[in-house]
């Protein structure tokens, strides 16, 4: 009697809220085991439920339909709507804080827009937020506004049955490259400064009960040959592989999805 081939492992349905860390993990290391059912990018937690959609220049020409969707979603503050749509099809929600790094723009009426790289590179959209006040990431004001939003997100995720499925990726910016050189600054910020700024945000999420998948600064390196170019948040392949293996282990052991 011949041995039957092992049944393929079931595909894990993943929702990604973030960008560089979670999405690259799915693309570069998780494509055989994960199916990304929703991707929410370029959207700070501070823009959630803060509608600025009327300010978006609808006639602006944008080469990428993806970039347009992400920008209009951010202007609309539609994070909760996107999560609600994805919840029934989600086995794990991967959240990274990469898109917080440039801060937000706050209008006098309270509406919020994320200072994303897409906005910075699109003059017509950038001009639409020139009257708003920039609140840099890592400042006391930013954190004080962000903290209650994190609590609100926990409530939303719990209601949707996603809190137990959420994994926060605490992956520091790489200090050095595979060649032993210091990583370049990004938008005026060094890796060391960014890691210090992120610290209290991750600590707050841990206090709120979010499951944190943490890698250590000395355990991550930036890859000069990364498909998106050299940056302190563009890592070597082994970093993405480790994240995938640890997420899968959490699912197998019931650590992800086992509580709410």
Q: What does this entry look like structurally?
A:
With 260 residues, the chain is α/β, with parallel strands linked by helices. The chain has a single domain (12-252), classed as Rossmann fold (3-Layer(aba) Sandwich), CATH 3.40.50. It has eight helices and eight strands, in the order βαβααβββααβαβαβα. The strands form two sheets. Strands 2-1-3-7-8 form a five-stranded parallel beta sheet, with helices on both faces. It has a three-stranded antiparallel beta sheet with strand order 5-4-6, with no helix packed on it. Helix 1 (20-28) crosses helix 8 and helix 6 packs across helix 7 (191-207). The longest helix is centred in the middle third of the chain and has 21 residues, at 140-160.
How would you summarize what this structure contains?
This protein is α/β, with parallel strands linked by helices and about 260 residues long. Helix content is about 35%, strand content about 15%.
Question: For the terminal residues, how far apart are their CA atoms?
Answer: 46 Å
CATH class: Alpha Beta
CATH topology: Rossmann fold
Helix content: 25-40%
Radius of gyration: 19 Å
What letter string, H or E per element, gives the SSE order?
A: EHEHHEEEHHEHEHEH
Question: Mind telling me which CATH architecture this is?
Answer: 3-Layer(aba) Sandwich
Main sheet makeup = 5 strands, parallel
Find the structural class using helix and strand composition: alpha/beta
Beta-strand content estimate: 5-15%
In spatial order, strands of the major sheet run 2-1-3-7-8
Low-confidence blocks of residues: none
| SS element count, helices | 8
């Amino acid at each position: 009697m011949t041995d039957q081939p092992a049944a393929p492992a079931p595909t894990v349905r993943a929702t990604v809220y973030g960008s560089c860390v979670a999405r690259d993990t799915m693309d570069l290391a998780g494509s055989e085991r994960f199916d990304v059912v929703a991707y929410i990018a370029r959207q700070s937690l501070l823009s959630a439920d803060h509608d600025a959609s009327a300010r978006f220049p609808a006639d602006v020409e944008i080469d990428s339909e993806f970039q347009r969707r992400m920008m209009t979603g951010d202007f609309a503050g539609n994070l909760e709507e996107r999560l609600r749509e994805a919840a029934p099809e989600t086995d794990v929600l991967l959240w990274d804080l990469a898109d917080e790094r440039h801060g937000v723009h706050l209008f006098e009426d309270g509406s919020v827009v994320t200072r994303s790289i897409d906005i910075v590179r699109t003059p017509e959209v950038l001009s639409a937020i020139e009257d708003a006040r920039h609140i840099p990431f890592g400042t006391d004001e930013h954190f004080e506004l962000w903290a209650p939003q994190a609590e609100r997100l926990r409530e939303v995720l719990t209601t949707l049955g996603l809190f137990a499925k959420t994994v926060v990726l605490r992956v520091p910016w790489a200090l050095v490259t595979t060649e032993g050189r210091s990583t370049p600054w990004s938008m005026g910020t060094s890796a060391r400064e960014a890691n210090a700024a992120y610290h209290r945000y991750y600590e707050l999420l841990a206090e709120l009960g979010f499951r944190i998948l943490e890698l250590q600064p000395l355990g991550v390196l930036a890859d000069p040959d990364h498909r998106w170019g050299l940056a302190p948040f563009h890592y070597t392949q082994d970093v993405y592989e480790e994240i995938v293996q640890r997420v899968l282990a959490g699912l197998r052991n019931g650590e992800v999805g086992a509580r709410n």
